[in-house]
Write a sequence for this structure.
């Protein structure tokens, strides 16, 4: 409720669906001292008076606008000029004049026909993107605009105060107010509203004209009903809109016809792959844009959007579990499958947001990709020279891997491209990959401040192979350079200061590309080709880590994790847990898609002991330390971690954030510059609880959130973890699997 009314007197010219809905909001919230209206018919005015919507009604708009400080034109757009001309001499100097018309260019043209270029400062056109099939004063609803958009199209003559006051009015109606240029409005609406309405009218008209129309409508399925719903809208209004926005609508129709012709041809030619590609692209684009527009604060450190509540203990933590696929391998399976010759089948694909961003990028570059469905993806490779220029910037979401690896691939293409990301990715450094790519002849610019995204990459005239000494250990930079090297002239070689993850090298070999590794020097020759293959994405050892630690610290647990990736650059967690005395067996070792995988059995461990973690294991377990800290807290004796300063610059400062959480749960620990000292609370053979219940801030770091969830197995009070929505980025099935394992975990949105 607003105490001081926003307006003294509001005059509606036209009081149908839209006008009367806004009048209802103004009335309910007491936003004006007086509301009056003018319509053509007395009947409408009488009805509005009777409903108590207005205090006075006039058939002549001149009488309505006297002394009004807000005039709302809520009538058919074609009547605008005539009404404005009539009321002009009677409008107060500082009155706000707005409208609700569905097209804006012609409203502005009408105003100019009346006022010339000297438009009143209070003139601010608007358009609520909300409606209903029924019109008239009785159809109005007070909540019509709630959670809908209202577009204001201020002109250069519009005063800020008028825009501000109108925004307040629409916000009071719970609408989301945005400002837009008039032409942009008409162009956008032509595509998103006017064309769909025309298509709905067109389809119904097409079917109604058939001889068997009765049957057609009688047996119409849900799809037809959904699609044709908007053809029930007011024909007068749409007649007006189609004429009012003629140029933009004609353009939209042309685009539609061209696209439809493509679909027609694909069906006629029975081009299954291309048809699948386009359908898949459309479906994915819809999800992708919905997600982008939902504007989830994924990695933003501001708003808590989700919470886990974990009650102590678990029942039945036994049996076989498959944790989701490895993220690094999932990314690469799409990238390499896309540029391979032939069709690549991927199983175990991680359907997390980062890998989906990579998948969408390749669809945007014309690659036909089916899925993902239950972790299965089929990629119809286009070969080394088959990628097409994307129609707009490639959106990488939160995924640094996608952006850095794709930099290498895009730098070698014959088209320009731009890559953008979310707020968090937009702060990450890209020069570390851009710089060596430039040495290869790439034209690549990080256009953000201080070498951050967006990345702008120009069509390449021919890359040349180089040797590069990596200044820092980075699998992403190494991979980006190797990928650029596929198209480069001659040999591309890299030496790394210490070994980093070698998923790129392994998978390139699985696709039949020769990559040499000699000590810490990796090299390949440009100009070869990749041959499609089957990629089984291993279960992600980083996700498996939570179940390994969980089973170790939980009485009677006996868990087998299937097909876990045991790439030697990633197995630090296994080695460290073994050194702590964990009952852990690795068996059934095999190779899949170039990667070593195995099943891992972990049983409740009676005598878990604290250790000084060997520094040579640190890089091999870098992502698993949050989970290992939970194991350390449950072990007997002290655990000391050193040489792990990198943990402080991950998605959060994982040393500090884990220390804060552990201390909140009553665990004694001391964070150090490059590690932590944790005083384990466990005793051999004793399964009593070690953690107090607490409320923990995960700082939107998925691994922190999952680690503290595991602590629930040995806590004697409820653990609340804030900011858990990021768990979906790496482990979308985490809560489902932990619930299956008998954890008492509740998700609060
Ligand atoms: P509506 O329910 O049919 O109401 C139109 C109102 O305008 C009626 O009160 C009518 O008077 C009055 N009117 C018509 N011609 C007039 C004239 N020449 N002079 C004075 N008053 C006149 O229409 P609506 O759905 O509210 O639409 C109004 C505006 O909103 C249109 O410009 C439309 O483009 C826009 N809009 C509509 C929707 C939607 O879904 N309906 C959505 C967004 C925007 P009587 O009552 O006497 O007939």
């Amino acid at each position: 409720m607003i105490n001081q009314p926003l307006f003294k007197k509001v005059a509606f010219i036209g009081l149908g669906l839209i006008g009367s809905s806004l009048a209802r909001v103004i009335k309910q919230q007491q936003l004006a001292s007086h509301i009056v209206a003018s319509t053509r018919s007395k009947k409408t005015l009488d009805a509005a008076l009777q409903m108590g919507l207005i205090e006075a009604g006039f058939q002549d708009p001149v009488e309505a606008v006297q002394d009004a400080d807000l005039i709302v034109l809520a009538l058919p757009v074609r009547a605008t000029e005539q009404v404005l001309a009539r009321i002009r001499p009677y409008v107060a100097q500082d009155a706000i004049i707005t409208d609700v018309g569905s097209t804006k260019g012609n409203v502005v043209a009408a105003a100019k026909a009346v006022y010339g270029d000297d438009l009143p400062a209070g003139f601010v056109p608007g358009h609520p993107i909300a409606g209903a099939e029924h019109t008239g004063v009785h159809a109005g609803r007070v909540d019509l605009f709630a959670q809908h958009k209202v577009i204001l199209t201020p002109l250069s003559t519009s005063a800020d105060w008028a825009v501000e006051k109108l925004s307040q009015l629409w916000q009071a109606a719970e609408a989301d107010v945005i400002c837009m240029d008039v032409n942009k409005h008409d162009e956008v609406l032509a595509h998103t509203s006017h064309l769909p309405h025309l298509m709905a009218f067109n389809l119904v008209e097409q079917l109604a004209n058939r001889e068997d129309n009765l049957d057609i409508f009688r047996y119409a399925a849900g799809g037809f009903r959904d699609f044709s719903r908007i053809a029930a809208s007011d024909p007068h209004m749409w007649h007006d809109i189609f004429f009012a926005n003629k140029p933009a609508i004609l353009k939209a129709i042309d685009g539609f016809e061209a696209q439809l012709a493509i679909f027609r041809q694909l069906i006629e030619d029975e081009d299954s792959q291309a048809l699948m590609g386009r359908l898949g692209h459309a479906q994915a684009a819809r999800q992708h844009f919905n997600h982008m527009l939902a504007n989830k604060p994924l990695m933003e450190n501001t708003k808590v959007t989700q919470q886990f509540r974990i009650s102590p203990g678990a029942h039945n933590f036994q049996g076989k579990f498959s944790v989701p696929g490895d993220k690094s391998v999932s990314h690469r399976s799409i990238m390499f499958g896309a540029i391979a010759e032939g069709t690549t089948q991927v199983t175990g694909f991680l359907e997390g947001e980062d890998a989906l961003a990579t998948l969408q990028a390749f669809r945007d570059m014309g690659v036909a990709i089916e899925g993902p469905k239950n972790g299965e993806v089929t990629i119809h490779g286009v070969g080394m020279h088959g990628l097409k220029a994307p129609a707009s910037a490639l959106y990488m979401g939160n995924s640094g891997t996608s952006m850095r690896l794709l930099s290498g691939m895009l730098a070698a293409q014959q088209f320009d491209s731009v890559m953008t990301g979310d707020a968090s990715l937009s702060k990450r450094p890209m020069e570390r990959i851009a710089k060596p790519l430039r040495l290869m002849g790439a034209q690549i610019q990080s256009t953000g401040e201080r070498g951050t995204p967006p990345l702008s990459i120009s069509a390449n005239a021919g890359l040349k192979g180089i040797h590069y000494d990596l200044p820092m250990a980075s699998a992403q930079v190494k991979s980006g350079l190797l990928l650029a090297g596929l198209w480069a002239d001659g040999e591309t070689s890299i030496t790394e200061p210490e070994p980093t993850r070698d998923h790129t090298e392994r998978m390139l070999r699985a696709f039949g590309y020769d990559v040499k590794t000699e000590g810490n020097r990796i090299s390949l020759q440009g100009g070869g080709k990749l041959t499609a293959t089957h990629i089984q994405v291993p279960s992600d050892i980083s996700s498996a880590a939570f179940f390994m630690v969980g089973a170790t610290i939980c009485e009677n647990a006996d868990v087998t994790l299937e097909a876990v990736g045991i790439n030697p650059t990633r197995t630090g967690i296994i080695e460290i847990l073994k050194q702590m005395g964990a009952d852990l067996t690795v068996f059934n070792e095999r190779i899949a898609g170039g990667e070593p995988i195995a099943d891992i059995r972990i049983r409740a461990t009676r005598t878990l002991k604290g250790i000084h973690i060997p520094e040579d294991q640190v890089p091999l377990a870098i992502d698993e330390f949050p989970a290992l800290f939970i194991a350390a807290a449950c072990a007997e004796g002290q655990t000391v971690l050193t040489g792990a300063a990198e943990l402080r610059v991950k998605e959060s400062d994982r040393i500090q954030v884990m220390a804060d959480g552990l201390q909140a749960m009553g665990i004694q620990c001391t964070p150090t510059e490059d590690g932590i000292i944790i005083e384990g609370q466990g005793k051999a053979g004793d399964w009593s609880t070690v953690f107090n219940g607490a409320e923990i801030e995960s700082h939107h770091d998925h691994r922190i959130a999952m680690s503290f969830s595991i602590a629930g197995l040995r806590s004697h009070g409820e653990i609340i973890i804030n900011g858990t929505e990021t768990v979906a980025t790496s482990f979308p099935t985490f809560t489902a699997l932990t619930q299956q394992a008998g954890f008492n975990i509740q998700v609060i949105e």
About this structure: The domain at 188-270 is CATH 1.10.3660.10 (6-phosphogluconate dehydrogenase C-terminal fold). The radius of gyration is 31 Å.
